[in-house]
Amino acid sequence: MSLVRFDSPGHLAGTDEAGRGCLAGPVTAAAIILAPDFENEVLTDSKKLSESKRKELKPILEEKALTYSVQHVFQEEIDVINILNASFLAMHKSLDKLSMLPSLILVDGNRFKPYQSIQHHCIIKGDGKYLSIAAASVLAKTYRDAYMEKIHLEFPMYNWKKNKGYPTKEHREAIRKYGICKYHRKSFRQLPEQLMLDI
């Protein structure tokens, strides 16, 4: 199914986040306003694209966007305000950095905290339906992946360059063996057998 543009006058911003379910690193959100005539046959939900396809799309989206922004909310703040609020905050921060104010915001998912007085629509699986949300999902994912690959060099035992901080079996085994580090979310259940780590 090809993605469609949401029919709306004015500037439409799509926003999405990446990394909500991770055990380490930030939650990252992107907001983007595409030109009304923007088209791309490859673009879809970032989860359905290979890493190489996402990397190919990133500069195209950056070049073709009327404006875009990608922002991280890091693990320390996630632990204080919880992951849902951190996701909203990352989206708001990315909307703050756009060079033009959108007239409507399309949000991937079923919940959002209103941004200023701008109307928004929450769309479940929106990254597989609308171009602007798909574009935001690709930018959020590629920027977050790049960050996780960078901090992988500091703590290679967790293999973040591969698992990007998600709770894979390999990542959990490394936590079991080495414990957690400064990039882990201390409010998250790091291992299945424990509800909370003694920090």
From TrEMBL:
A divalent metal cation binds at residues 16-17, 108. Manganese or magnesium. Binds 1 divalent metal ion per monomer in the absence of substrate. May bind a second metal ion after substrate binding. One of its GO terms (molecular function) is RNA binding. Its main location: cytoplasm. PROSITE patterns: RNASE_H_2 (PS51975). Pfam families: RNase_HII. It is found in: Cytoplasm. Residues 10-199 form the RNase H type-2 domain. GO terms for biological process: DNA replication, removal of RNA primer; mismatch repair. Its cofactor is Mn(2+); Mg(2+). It comes from the Bacteria. It catalyses: Endonucleolytic cleavage to 5'-phosphomonoester. Its EC number is 3.1.26.4. One of its GO terms (cellular component) is cytoplasm. It is an enzyme of class 3 (hydrolase). Keywords: Cytoplasm, Endonuclease, Hydrolase, Manganese, Metal-binding, Nuclease. Endonuclease that specifically degrades the RNA of RNA-DNA hybrids. Belongs to the RNase HII family. This is Ribonuclease HII. The gene is rnhB.
